[in-house]
């Protein structure tokens, strides 16, 4: 006789669930745990507990094994006013932790315990996903910048970081070589309209078209102004290989120094502060 799904669930509950059905992997980092919850919920914006007045708390699902009952129970947890709050969601009985988390989030949403976080009215983003992308684009010390700086340092070059080449001009370069008068900008593909990776937005298309065009116009103005004052501007895209980009910058800096007078470019470069 073929065993029904109901019979299988009843049989499954007659024995203690395996650790893989509820227990998180050992040594998971905070970032990994958050990513696991995001996948199960359908995104970080789907893990919102409304606190009223447009405020939200980011919740998570905790799975607990009750050995005597041989049951796995799911609880919704979040922080509010400095205290951890918890609410029972229900029992789950899948064979994997990922499946049980997904089921628990569906149960919490069906019960109205969680909601979808809305984009703040003050934000330019058209969705929580695009807002997350924009928030990830930091103004300085981005990963591409750090990789480029490391590659330049290995070549014996010394530089200044996030500095105005011309103090009175409100334009900050990512990497500056004062003696060689070289300013390097590492442009983000999203904000500066990279021809290889930028994709026009489907929502608020006209707004984003104007926004990116404005950034590009400002970039062109910055380059022209610095060059008028005797600076050499090198613009790189964040997707470029750091080693190749460093070689390009190195060549420009050395050529500039060699054209300024006596002394080897290498010895003069090493004296520049970082």
Terminal CA distance reads 76 Å
Mean pLDDT: 84
Q: Could you state the CATH homologous superfamily of the largest domain?
A: VSR Endonuclease
Q: Return the structural class.
A: alpha+beta
Strand content: 15-25%
Global geometry: elongated
Widest beta sheet: strand line-up: 6-7-8-9
Instruction: Outline the biggest β-sheet.
Output: 4 strands, mixed
> How many β-strand runs?
9
Helicity range: 25-40%
CATH topology of the largest domain: Endonuclease, Chain A
| Rg of Cα set | 27 Å
Low-confidence segments:
1-11, 121-128, 262-274
Number of contiguous helices: 9
- The CATH class assignment of the largest domain is Alpha Beta
Give, in order, the helices and strands: HHEEEEEHHHEEEHHEHH
Count of distinct structural domains: 2
Which second-level CATH architecture of the largest domain applies? Answer: 3-Layer(aba) Sandwich
Describe this structure in words.
- With 274 residues, the chain is an alpha+beta fold.
- It folds into two domains: 106 residues, no CATH class; 135 residues, VSR Endonuclease (Endonuclease, Chain A), CATH 3.40.960.
- It is 38% helix and 21% strand.
- It is built from nine helices and nine strands.
- The strands form three sheets. The chain has a four-stranded mixed sheet with strand order 6-7-8-9, with helices on both faces. The chain has a three-stranded antiparallel sheet with strand order 3-4-5, covered by helices on one side. A two-stranded antiparallel ribbon has the order 1-2.
- A hairpin with a 2-residue loop joins strand 1 and strand 2.
- It starts with a helix and ends in a 5-residue tail after the last helix.
- The N terminus and C terminus are likely disordered.
